[in-house]
Amino acid sequence: MKRFIASLALALLPFAAAAHGPSPQKVEKSVTIKAEPAKVWALVKDFGNMQKWHPAVASTKLEKKGEDTFRTLTLKDGGTIHEKLRSADDQSMQLKYEIIEGALPVADYYSVMTVKPGPAAGETTVTWMGRFYRVYKLNPPIPAGQDDESALKAVNSIYDAGLANLKKFAEGQK
Amino acid sequence: MQPFTPLFASILSISIAIPCWANSYAYITNQGSNDVSVIDLQNNRVVTNVPVGKSPVGVAASSKLSRVFISNVDGQSISVIDAKTNKVISETPINGSPVGLVLSPDSSRLYVTDWFEDRILEFDTGNMALLRQVKVEKAPAGMVVSPDKERLYVANRDSNDVAMIDTKTFHIKSRIRVGKHPFGIAIDEAGDWLYVVNVQENSLTAINLKDNKTFNVTVGEHPYCAAVSPDGKSVYVSNTQGDTVSVIDTQQMKVVRTIAVGGFPEGLNYDKSTHKVYVANWFDNSVSVIDALTHQLVATIPTGTQSRAFGQFIAEVAR
Questions:
Q1: What is the ipTM of this complex?
Q2: Which of A2, A173, B190, B288 is deepest in the core (most CB within 10 A)?
Q3: pLDDT tier at B168 (50, 70, 90 boundaries)?
Q4: CATH class of the structural domain B22-318
Q5: Between chains, do A21 and B57 touch, taking CB under 8 Å as contact?
């Protein structure tokens, strides 16, 4: 995972006013955590502290601009990702956010993290969903690193590593 | 032998004219599973899944031809399905990325938007010969044709406007400014009102085509597509990030109901035969069915993966 993040382009990839291609990609991953839903939700909804549970994040800087909340994630292997919080709903235990620009080979990335009780008592299921497009915005042939596969690979590895560590961290917490 | 009376003869000819086994079907493009789910709208059952090209998105179903046209975005082609047999009868390669599809009212012409090359292609539906093309900036997406077949309206995602193309000359005659990032578009049966969905403004622009007056209606989060009821009194809009469908009363020009549907609802159509609104859920891999008379969600039909159904996806087919 660390090696993969290092191999990504470190330059910020700006999203040109959300112009994107026509085929959105989807990644959906889940993990079951032996911890109370309220505790897990507290970690997930803490938009300004992603470094607590995601192994690729070194630090998080929270910023408020008027009504909107943003965060800048500094990755351990260099590079940053700038994201906007869309909503954090305590009743549905759902966090929604989008990437404004950053060191990932994706465009127009929108994500939802959902925390649900179960399956067993004292357990919590976290589902992380992403919808995004590849970087390349013209007709094929598509340059390497800017295609659907690169986008999917990057997001899959972020979700896998993130959920695995969220589980470890939440279960280890007293 | 008794000669047929004129009355008897006319009754006989009327009963022969009605297709006894014609039924409405929905053709749902599944971008993820590269196929099209065919749903029988009398019982909401998936009849079959027809394999097409890579990443099918757009659909234009013709009752007249008993054919369904599919745009394969990543496969860069148009698949034609014979609706009587549910088999693909041809695949036409496109030198671009075909997304939006619309048929002329008589089904003789198929119009295709090429997302990256900013153009509209015109095909003869009989032999899928490419007839003409016109450059339309920028990132043309959804299209409708006026009922009098003279005007083709195109929503241009990256130029925030709708282009009106004269179907005779295939030139752009005018542009109407709408909101940010227009994607889906719908026209009422009379051809008096155009409805354009502005994805990045969470709104719908209603355009009166007689006097060009526009009205803006706020809907849900990140809306994509619109469908109009046959009487023109209601417009339905899919809100992809709200997982809802907004119901707009066109006389009041405001949302009167918000219905929870599946995850990431996109393409939606009003079925006249059942008075139901069918909406494809990209995230849930399903179709939500709304009763248009009660505005209740009445069924959820599992389809292929990443269902989109962008366009006119319902047709009446005698099988």
A1: 0.84
A2: B288
A3: very high
A4: mainly beta
A5: no
